[in-house]
Design brief:
Blueprint (H helix, E strand, L loop, with lengths): L1 H18 L1 H35 L4 E6 L18 E7 L1 H11 L4 H7 L7 E6 L4 H12 L4 E6 L1 H43 L1 H9 L4 H38 L3 H4 L10 H31 L1
Antiparallel strand pairs: 1-3, 1-4, 2-3
């Protein structure tokens, strides 16, 4: 009996999909588009987060010093071990060597200047995330007579973090709108399918069929739409990511160091498919439940 019931539900679900194939295709396209856009936002959010973690996770500062032979600046005495992870002293000569290594074409320009234009400096990496305390420490050493200028990556960090928040909020905002759109699209399509089978429902009621027997094929139809839409959106996203380097050509070389991954994890895709099952099943159940109770009245 159970095998027969399962077979009936599956066959009836497939029949419902075929009978209203154009409406179901419309619903499917909406779901695919929804999850494809969500995939893009999660992809951007993941890569931006990883970039921040790798390249801009810690506060950094560069303390430029006056190039004096009689300098008595003892930075060691000023160190706060609770704030500073490590620091490196860079002499004027070392600074110039680093510059010429990175920009060899400007070697002749440096020679024309006639003297070393690079001041000695101390590069500091902070382990503390307390921006207020770090700023107080930097303000304290800023007043030292040997200190010429202090530059930090605070502004860059704030901007990158701001971009991350914007991408995340945009993803939540547009994702929510698209998910609601998919939800109500499936609700309306299942409702149309249910009304088109109104006579079948009445016959089933006359022979004593339970609500589950009537509802199950339509709910399965909604779940099927959700799963299929999620899988197709994943395939489209993976194909898009793979052809992106070919489409962008040489410009992709500039993006490659920033991208932590060119795909999304299987764990993420598993959650995506589960969400699709939930959305498809819940929206179908909402529609069928209203229809069945309306018929009962």
């Amino acid at each position: 009996m159970k095998v027969f019931l399962l077979r009936y539900i599956l066959e009836d679900s497939v029949a419902s999909f075929k009978n209203q194939k154009y409406l179901n295709i419309l619903s499917l396209v909406t779901i695919i588009f929804t999850f494809f856009i969500i995939n893009i936002f999660f992809f951007l959010n993941y890569n931006i987060s990883d970039f921040i973690k790798k390249f801009a996770s810690n506060y950094k500062a560069e303390v430029y010093l006056f190039d004096r032979k009689d300098s008595n600046f003892d930075f060691e005495k000023l160190i706060d071990r609770n704030l500073i992870k490590e620091y490196t002293y860079i002499s004027s000569q070392k600074a110039m060597e680093i510059f010429l290594k990175n920009f060899p074409s400007l070697k002749s320009t440096i020679k024309e200047i006639g003297e070393n234009p690079f001041p000695p400096s101390i590069r500091i990496e902070f382990k503390s995330k307390n921006k207020k305390k770090i700023t107080e420490f930097l303000n304290k050493i800023r007043n030292h007579r040997e200190v010429k200028e202090i530059k930090t990556n605070f502004e860059l960090l704030d901007k990158i973090s701001g971009v991350k928040k914007i991408v995340f909020l945009l993803g939540v905002f547009f994702g929510s709108i698209l998910l609601f759109t998919s939800f109500f699209t499936i609700v309306n399509i299942i409702k149309i399918v249910a009304y088109s089978r109104k006579e079948d429902v009445l016959i089933l009621r006359m022979i004593g069929a339970s609500n589950f027997y009537i509802e199950a094929p339509l709910i399965l139809n909604g779940i099927f739409l959700g799963i299929l839409g999620a899988i197709v959106s994943i395939l489209l996203f993976e194909i898009s990511v793979k052809i992106l380097p070919i489409y962008l050509k040489s410009f992709y070389q500039y993006l490659k160091p920033v991208l932590a991954t060119s795909s999304l994890s299987l764990k993420y895709y598993s959650y995506l498919i589960l969400s699709a099952i939930l959305i498809g099943g819940l929206s179908a159940y909402t529609s069928v439940y209203k229809f069945i109770h309306l018929e009962e009245e």
